[in-house]
Amino acid sequence: MRPDPELRKSFEEQLRKALSYLAYSHKKIQKLPDSAKLLDEESLETWESYCARFSRVADIFSMKYLRLLILEEDPGFSGSFRDYMNKAAKLNLIDDVDLWLEIRGLRNLSAHEYADDEMTAFLKQIKRYTPILLNIKDKFGL
Fold first, then answer.
1. Domain coverage including residue 93
2. Are 12 and 65 in contact (CB under 8 A)?
3. pLDDT at 113
């Protein structure tokens, strides 16, 4: 059974909004230190919002949108997250499976508490991968 075209429109709208919010937060954190030791409460709150927006985009794209595109192409497809990423790469929807597995891992880590050094490394990784997420808008014509 093929996915409902209205569902695709809904996911695209969710993704468009989430990308817009992430782009806003990405600009905002550029002015902030990414060392956890240097963050005050306001800066930490901004970073936490940014991380949540990163996670939201990663979720909507990988768990909803990509899955929908794959099922439009192959309605009987099923499998693990890795299986879906491999299929997405095969369909040229993504370029690098390992990269998306890393992004998924970062998204999963975002809910944990960290020591300052771990937090600093985490923030730097999120910041480094954000342009990849923001590129979704252009690549998929959103």
1. 5-139
2. yes
3. 58
pLDDT single digits (tens) 39-98 = 888 998 998 899 999 999 999 999 999 999 999 999 999 999 999 999 999 999 999 999
How far apart are alpha carbons 114 and 109 in whole angstroms? 10
Please name the amino acid found at residue 92.
N
Helices (H), 30-135: 41-59, 66-73, 81-90, 97-109, 116-134
62 contacts 81 by C-beta, under 8 angstroms: yes
As a whole number of angstroms, the distance between CA 73 and CA 5 comes to 13
Give the CATH number, domain containing residue 80.
Answer: 1.20.120
| CA 106 to chain CA centroid, nearest Å | 9
State the total domains in the chain.
Answer: 1
Residue with tokens 């499976």: 97
Enter the pTM of the model: 0.89
Contact 66, 93 (CB under 8 A): yes
Report the candidate in 73, 54, 79, 68 with the shortest Cα–Cα distance to residue 133. Answer: 54
Instruction: Supply the pLDDT for residue 112.
Output: 56
